[in-house]
Amino acid sequence: MFALGENLTPRCNFISLFLPGTFGQVLECWDRETREMVAVKVVRSIKKYREAAMSEIDALQLLGKYDRNGSRCVQIRNWFDYRNHICIVFEMLGPSIYDFLRKNSYRPFPVDLVRELGRQLLECVAFMHDLRLVHTDLKPENILFVSPDYVKIPDYKVPVHSFSEAACYKRLPKSSAIKVIDFGSTADGHKHHNYIVSTRHYRAPEVILGLGWSYSCDIWSVGCILVELCTGEALFQTHDNLEHLAMMERVLGPLPQQMLKRVDRHAEKYVRRGRLDWPDNATSRDSIKAVMKLPRLQNLVMQHVDHSAGDIIDLLQGLLRYDPSTRLTAHSALGHPFFSRDLYRRL
């Protein structure tokens, strides 16, 4: 519990509630010493959340040690314990990519902006992976624009008969600069992990099938995010494991048999005779319809991307390979023509 104007520390004054969440809340505060607004993440006074917060602080301090300019990840200012709540002080940033999309009526981003955002995201992932860290929860909610500023431009794709003046305009960020946040679930990439990670829509197949995961699960999440930036909507909108796997097959083709043969005991029910047990084991007709309405990846992208479609489709196919051992790495993805041709064009 806290009140407007309350001092969390002698230098930190509470201004407004910025963001409520499962872990706790983010407060907008005034730092009297640096004379700037900061974001203070106040973690719930529960053991598992406190432990996650301390892990996040360790990860942030390691990242900050090697990212002195703070160009990739959100910067931690300091942290303190307040009434048994771990409080982490961050630099103030703009809205998340998800919030920007939501306030923009889920309109897709132009492909040139997708290119800039994708490059920065992969640079951050490559930086983390070089430090043996796996983020494990990459999603549009955890990627923030540095600046909240945006411009409104006419949206010529809106039907002429639309009566809403607001619908005739779309927002574009003034700056494409972004930073990744939320390192509470960060894991050691040199260890073999089996527990469930990632928010559902961005969860890799090896995680669902219980095959163990490492760095490549971040790469899968990046692929899902880039599709969402191109289309405006999450690629796999489901909350059921079997339906999720069926959606993957619908968009990307059949899951490899060598992966299905190695599923753990919890995922055995999704497989029958070496194949995904779909649609026979579907939970409902609506579930089958939800899968069947999805187009192939290349068709989905081409519905929204005017130019560079071939390049980004090829990149996405590398990021969304089923087998994590053949999936692109962050460094190899950054060398893809989707990024290098843009550099050539600007030179």
UniProtKB/TrEMBL annotation:
Q: Which PROSITE patterns does the UniProt entry name for this protein?
A: PROTEIN_KINASE_DOM (PS50011), PROTEIN_KINASE_ST (PS00108)
Protein keywords: ATP-binding, Kinase, Nucleotide-binding, Serine/threonine-protein kinase, Transferase
SMART domains given for it? S_TKc
Give the reaction(s) catalysed: L-threonyl-[protein] + ATP = O-phospho-L-threonyl-[protein] + ADP + H(+); L-seryl-[protein] + ATP = O-phospho-L-seryl-[protein] + ADP + H(+); L-tyrosyl-[protein] + ATP = O-phospho-L-tyrosyl-[protein] + ADP + H(+)
What SUPFAM superfamilies does the entry give?
Protein kinase-like (PK-like) (SSF56112)
Q: What class of enzyme is it?
A: transferase
Q: Does the keyword ATP-binding apply?
A: yes
**Residue ranges of every copy of the Protein kinase domain listed in the record:** 12-339
A Pfam family this chain is assigned to: Pkinase
- Name a GO molecular-function annotation: ATP binding
GO cellular component labels: nucleus
E.C. number(s) listed in UniProt? 2.7.12.1
- Gene3D superfamilies, alphabetized: Phosphorylase Kinase, domain 1 (3.30.200.20), Transferase(Phosphotransferase) domain 1 (1.10.510.10)
The answer, when asked if Transport is one of the entry's keywords, is no
Matches recorded under CDD domains: PKc_CLK
Q: Give the protein family.
A: Belongs to the protein kinase superfamily. CMGC Ser/Thr protein kinase family. Lammer subfamily.
**What is the protein's name according to its record?**
dual-specificity kinase
Q: What is the lineage of its organism?
A: Eukaryota, Viridiplantae, Streptophyta, Embryophyta, Tracheophyta
